[in-house]
What does this fold into?
Amino acid sequence: MKSGFRQSMAWLHTWCGLWAGWILFAVFLTGTASYYRQELSDWMRPELHAGAQRAEAAQWAVTYLNVVAPDARTWLIELPEARNRSLRVGWSDRVGPGGFTLATLDGSGAAAAVRKTAGGDLFYYFHFDLLVIPFRLGRWLVSLCALAMLVTIVSGVIIHRRIFADFFTFRPGKGGRRAWLDAHNALGVLALPYHLMITYTGLVTFALMLVPYGADLAYRGDRAAFQAELTGQMWPGPKSGVAAPLASLLPMLEQAGRLWGGGLPGRITVVNPGDAQARVLIARGDTDRISTTRQTVLFDGASGRMLAARDAGGLAERSWGVFYGLHLARFASPALRALFFLSGLAGTAMVASGLMLWVTKRRAMAKLGLRPPRGVRFAAVLNIGVIAGLPVAMLALLWANRLIPAQLASRDRWEFYSFFGVWAVALLYPLLRPNRAAWRELFAVAALLSGLLPVLNALTTQVGLNATLRQGDWAIAGVDLAVLTMAPVFAALAVRTGRPPRSAKVSARQVEVAS
Amino acid sequence: MVSTVWRAPAGVAIRCLAAIAGGYGLAALVAAACATSLPTGRVEAVLTGMLLSTAVHAGVFLWAFAARSAWHVWAGLLVVACLPGTALLLAAR
It folds into this structure.
């Protein structure tokens, strides 16, 4: 029965991995890029200059909001952090989440004249919404693929007998199939804890959408009440109608910081600004701790007196916060962020090598006349369009950001179209070309786009590498340098995938053992 | 590729249904049972259920393809569902 069990798991691993594989590859790659979402967004808004300090930022925001939206019901202030140079403010005519008009303030406290851009947000939202289909459907589809990923990881560990030996096994000379299998195993084992963590925590972030029944039963259908209790919102009543100026935010921020043992405040919500019933809710940021559990302090807006504080709750809530925080990784230091990024790339490559392995193995079987390969051509073409096509599309977005005129009103839409348009072309391209040529040419395009991006950046903006390296602006320079590093990788892939496999001879016995 | 009886299309379809729909059903049941019957605070109980449900669904998914027959898959699901089902019924009374 034991070998039967392992065979069942191998079957499950193969088919679960294949069906979910293409979406998983795209989710992994764009999700990995999202570790640097902030830096990418800054790179895509070259007009935005650093400068806002935390302390003065809050006052600037209040001054700005007093002019722009003195009668709003709610103000929102997102304080700048180490990785986020912009100060975001918003205002709304109602209380509660959503419905905000947003503005970005620059280092002088005025609204920044920045180009409209899809930004790093496009990769971020794509990695769980898929963007081209209704977002709810996208989220369910990504969740289903994530579940398949979890199942594929566990079944992969079960069928994997020699977990340590295979870690040191890589036989590129042994021909296509063996090399893909070795790469798949090494990449899978190398970052196994990461793969499990990121997949499970990803599902946790959507758990309320996936299984809302617990919350609905316990809160009698009032999901907003559950959300409010979970996120520590404490909403006040209506305006009193008596005008009263808002007290200075600085002492409130200091008091909240002391309460959290030096923890940094992140988001400030002001309800009923300019009224005697004004309330200021300060929420702790999540860049200096792993957990995203909501810790909030409520102040009376007119007097600045502290009214209430809410701290992280019990074990489940703290676990929840840690899982959520681990997935978002907003706490990560530069070194840890880089490690997460590399682990994410390893995960992406693991999915890609699994997809390659499926095609290579079936082609080898077809050569021996074992079984007509069904769907192999479809999978091979999709592999090219997804594995080589998506990087091309992602680079095309960065190019579009520099090439579309900065003043164009709907330019963020055009960036969006560039990304999906280029990807659509890349998905169709392998239908017109022999497989090896399509691999070679798409990877060659990726190598060109990545190698020349820093040149384009230096030619079209003031934040080229020559300037950013001199000023030590590592967020912007880092994007240029990282993309430049990818150029030789894509070039090597173009050469390697364009070459016929070295040993195409396979024996029937080998195929039998491997399948 | 070794072919066994359960890899016939019907068997695979039944197992897929158990893995996706059956797994979701049990996950939802566990989430609901935890939320209504755990003696912790409300937020805690709801979150415990949600955190468990993901692992439950993955577990059922694996079971759906590991069990000896498609009949075993559903029988196992029903037996396991008794515990959270009873808890939910008791809490609802």
Notes: Chain B has a mean pLDDT of 90. The helical segments of chain B are 9-37, 42-66, 70-92.
